[in-house]
Write a structure and sequence with these properties.
By secondary structure, this protein is mainly alpha-helical. The protein is built from 8 helices and no strands. Helix 1 packs across helix 8. The longest helix is centred in the first third of the chain and has 37 residues. It starts with a helix and ends in a 7-residue tail after the last helix.
Amino acid sequence: MFPPEVFGAFALYLSTFSILATLTSLKYENAIIIPKSGKKAVHLFYLSFFLNILFSLLLFVVFLLFRYEFSHLIGLNDQYSHWFLVLPLSLLFFGFYKVINFMLIREKRFRYASLNKVIRRSFEGAGQTTAGVLGFSSGLVWGHLLGSFSNNISGLLQLRKMSCFAQPFEFSTLKGVMRRFGNFPKYQAFPHMLNTVSFTLPVIIVNILYNQELTGFFDLTRQGLALPCKIK
């Protein structure tokens, strides 16, 4: 349904997405499960949401001004450069769901967390397949966005049902948890980003040295090798 060069462009998009996704809320979402106080946990939730919004807005401005320069840097054809205007929105939805997921884990709602993975992949797959049938070349990106959006809807409905936000918002508490858990952005965000870069950088290097078609085949092979297999 999609030619190899489109998969190559999508692989570059996902590589960029994966690297930037490690910085969306500076790892404050990881701290949600730690406080015994529900009030502090909720304010960590608010803090992570705010950082996600701020990061996505700044990134949108950067890509709005320099998307062509960034496309040339990683060897992406200009016809796909507009995908990077969608990337901040996709990161926003993905970052929001990371925060929601940690709140579900804190509340021991593991069934909800598992269900949301199925919902995300179902909507993503359905959107990408429909776009492929209709011949919409940007369908891989929009399907990915649809999957993240569906995750947010299901996760927010679950949190609403659980009444997690009975605590009133207090700016002093927000500042307190930001200082208290300041080690998360200091010692987790950058190392996690480097770890992701080490995994995704080969896709970008192959595209710079060769072309998008070979990048598409390379990424397909890489994903195939990552599939679980039975060892006798």
